[in-house]
Design the sequence.
């Protein structure tokens, strides 16, 4: 089961990603995919999700559910889970999912792994007991220095919040047969101790996830001043500026630009890695880019293992030539 998040009447991208992943997991387990969608007049949005391999969406329609508030959403999700009894329950690792998931897990007394970057099905043995077909909940730990695989095999559902952008959206099948089931639950005014009076939406200035061209810099850039070269190249190519965690930690650029296991997962058409060694934590966030160009002075840098094109050289020499050649062509 996937908690389908909606914001302002539109289903969040991460929920579509999770439904696609849920279909893959369900096929391995030979079970169905369900979703829980709460809001007001969300039937059309629900219909759009069925082609992603969703067998049933439980639709809770109430004007008071138009905006997320913790208590009614928690009550509904607990009720749905108790009735449907899913083996696995997934939430997006958004502000909403990170708030809702722990509340539900605490009430049901089940485990919850936060901020997963991968989900797999496998077997596990502990204390002489063998568990089969359980959920491997994989996430970075210890500041991203290791990747931990976490299991909670005893209690169901196995629950996890999943980072945005790490799961691929599947190809919708318009012929897929699923259904939308109205779900009734008694909600009194006492279930709504808080209300949303006003929403202020701040424009997102950096959108790495949607960008088709990303130019990223790492510690090899050398300084905050040198990082301006990365910005210039990204501007010329009409792309976004990315960075490795090391560059962010060094203060070259803000965390909103961070790509990798502890940052944003991206899949652009073109990814240019400048002065980035290619540690596994960074590669996990960009290795599915359609084209990767790496610029590094170290010819043995791990980034070259996944790059489609590699340039061994000083980025202070290479990038200005990139910019000049692109401007000349255009």
Sequence:
């Amino acid at each position: 089961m996937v908690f389908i998040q909606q914001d302002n009447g539109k289903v969040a991208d991460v929920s579509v990603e999770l439904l696609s992943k849920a279909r893959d997991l369900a096929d391995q387990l030979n079970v169905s995919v369900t979703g829980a969608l709460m809001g007001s007049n969300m039937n059309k949005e629900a219909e759009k999700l069925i082609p992603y391999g969703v067998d049933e969406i439980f639709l809770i329609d109430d004007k008071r559910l138009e905006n997320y508030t913790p208590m009614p959403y928690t009550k509904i999700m607990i009720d749905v889970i108790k009735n449907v009894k899913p083996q696995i329950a997934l939430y997006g690792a958004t502000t909403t999912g990170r708030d809702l998931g722990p509340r539900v897990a605490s009430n049901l007394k089940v485990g919850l792994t936060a901020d997963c970057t991968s989900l797999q099905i496998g077997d596990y043995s502990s204390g002489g007991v063998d568990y089969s077909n359980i959920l491997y909940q994989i996430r970075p730990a210890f500041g991203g220095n290791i990747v931990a695989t976490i299991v909670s095999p005893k209690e169901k559902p196995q629950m996890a919040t999943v980072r945005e952008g790490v799961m691929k959206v599947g190809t919708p099948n318009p012929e897929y047969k699923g259904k939308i089931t109205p779900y009734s639950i008694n909600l009194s005014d006492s279930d709504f101790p808080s209300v949303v009076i006003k929403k202020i939406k701040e424009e997102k200035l950096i959108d790495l996830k949607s960008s088709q061209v990303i130019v990223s810099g790492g510690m090899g850039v050398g300084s905050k001043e040198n990082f301006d070269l990365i910005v210039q190249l990204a501007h010329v190519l009409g792309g976004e500026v990315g960075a490795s965690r090391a560059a962010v930690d060094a203060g070259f650029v803000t965390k909103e630009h961070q790509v990798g296991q502890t940052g944003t997962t991206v899949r652009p058409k073109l990814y240019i890695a400048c002065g980035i060694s290619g540690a596994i934590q960074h590669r996990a966030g960009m290795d599915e880019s359609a084209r990767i160009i790496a610029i590094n002075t170290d010819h043995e840098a791990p980034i070259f293992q996944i790059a489609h094109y590699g340039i061994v050289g000083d980025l202070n020499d290479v990038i200005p030539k990139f910019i000049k050649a692109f401007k000349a062509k255009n």
